[in-house]
Write a structure and sequence with these properties.
By secondary structure, the protein is an all-alpha fold. It starts with 41 loop residues before the first helix and ends with a helix. It has 4 helices and no strands. The relative contact order is 0.10. It has helices at 42-73, 77-104, 109-118, 120-132. The longest helix is centred in the middle third of the chain and has 32 residues, at 42-73.
Length: 134
């Protein structure tokens, strides 16, 4: 048995107190504090948005490449659809992260939503550039 406070190894199996520091060996349940808030570092959020932006750009390039392969060979439709699905999912993840950045920066979400769904691709590029500037 090991003491939770000092880490001292206790040889007796049914001991209730530590020989070294005298603290109780019973497991103490910690109550969660309601005052603790999750601290969000803006740099980490920007890094995550940058990674998602790169994933989205690579999915765009892969979609065009597999579309050309599909158009030339009249095959590989499932591969093209898989890459197209990856493009849509990565775009949704990127928009979610950019929306979180807009909330952290206390910017208007109405403008963000209208920009990204009014002109989707250009709006996403504009939102990424605007929200990741330090």
């Amino acid at each position: 048995m090991i003491c939770y406070e000092c880490g001292h190894a206790i040889r007796r199996d049914f001991a209730k107190f530590c020989d070294h520091c005298g603290s109780s060996l019973e497991i103490k349940l910690k109550k969660p504090s309601a005052k603790k808030e999750a601290l969000v570092k803006i740099e980490d959020e920007i890094d995550q948005a940058s990674n998602l932006f790169l994933l989205w750009n690579s999915a765009i390039a892969a979609t065009f490449i597999f579309y050309i392969i599909h158009a030339v060979t009249d095959g590989y439709i499932y591969l093209f659809l898989l890459v197209l699905f990856m493009l849509v999912v990565s775009w949704m993840l990127l928009l979610t992260k950019l929306h979180d950045l807009a909330l952290i920066n206390h910017q208007s979400t109405k403008k963000f939503i209208l920009m990204n769904f009014g002109v989707p691709i250009l709006g996403t590029f504009y939102s990424y550039i605007k929200l990741t500037q330090k």
